[in-house]
Amino acid sequence: MAINGALHHVEVYVRNLDNSKQFYDWLLVDHLGYRVYQQWPSGISYILGEGTYLVFVQSQKLQQAYNRTNVGLNHLAFNMVGQDAVDRLRTDLSRLPYHELYVERYPFAGGPDHYALYLEDPDRIKIEIVAVPA
Fold this sequence. Notes:
metal-binding; Glyas_Bleomycin-R_OHBP_Dase; four-stranded mixed sheet; VOC_core
C-alpha cells in the first residue's frame, strides 16, 4: 500500500563506485536485509522490501571532497533490531577498513536513551545504526 509522503528514494553521488558498492553490500545486503535493486555501469541501487530505495552513482566531479558539515546531506540512519545485533555489527566493523565514529562514547553517543553505532562510508558520509526493539 502506498503511503502519501513516504520517501521514495535517495540518490548519493560517490567518489569511487567500487568502494561504495563494497561498503554498502557489506552494510545493506549482509546486515540490514536490503537487496540489489538496479545496477548499471555508473551506479547501483539497494531496496528493502518494496519500499524506499538508495541509489549510489559515480560522480564525475571529484575536485571537492564531501564534507557532512556543509550544506547538504549530513547522514543516513538505519534501524537495526536489537542491541545485540548492533554490537555484532560493531565487532564485524572492527575487522574492516571502515572508520567508527565516537568510539569512546559507544553505544550512547546520541544520548543516554539512544543505543547506536556511528561510522563513515568510503566518502565519509556518516552512517548511524540505531538499535530498535523487535
